[in-house]
Design a protein that fits this description.
mainly beta; Porin; 14-stranded antiparallel barrel; two-stranded antiparallel sheet; 1 helix; 2% helix
Length: 243
Amino acid sequence: MGAKGLGMGQATTALPGYDWSLFSNPALANNEQIAVGFYGIRNYGFAELTDMSAISTIPTKFGVTSLGFHRYGDKLFSETRARLGIKNEWRLLHFGVALNYSHISFGEDYGAGGAIGVDVGIAAEITESLWVGAKSTNLNQPSYKGIREDLPREVAIGFSYGLNELALLAFDVVKDVNFPVSYRGGLEVKIIENLKGRVGLSTEPLTYSLGFGYGNNRWDINFAVQQHQELGLSPGLDFMLFF
């Protein structure tokens, strides 16, 4: 989730302070400000394949609590997710866990089901510029009740390297249990003050992406477009508020 991640090839496993980390690596939630955000993407240009998401993060003395909501599809097929995450840290080690309730519906009377999954993540600040991270989604191997379908499961490792405030490089290796290994990489560069440009690439499936972000310490807006080799363009936009 998030247009910044989309613009960087979805290489988000080791992006420190990533606003949408609840949907990626829950160990990387921003622990400095209360935040509220909204994100939408129209997959391949079809209104029926629109994703809509919302997120809120709240730093507390016990760690960072995150709440998230995601909906995909239309009346013929839809998937709805509600997520609750907690992130904490010890020295330079960050760790997080997220509970995910997923519900899918095939419309009419073709069936529906829900399931609860558990995601875990860990990240380490090796140097001020270098981060490494790892995550596992649906670690408990859940299945939708009533329709005998497993939730997707994947593991990922990644790193990110920042060059002062001028550039940020990210790279992930992702393995879904049902699909080949995917390699994902992205680059973010500072264009002018508060304006950043992004490019990304991923394999399995092969996609190219680009985007930009503009903001300050009170708000942030990001836009990205991803080109699927066969299915076409997917534009995404998010907006964050910080308190």
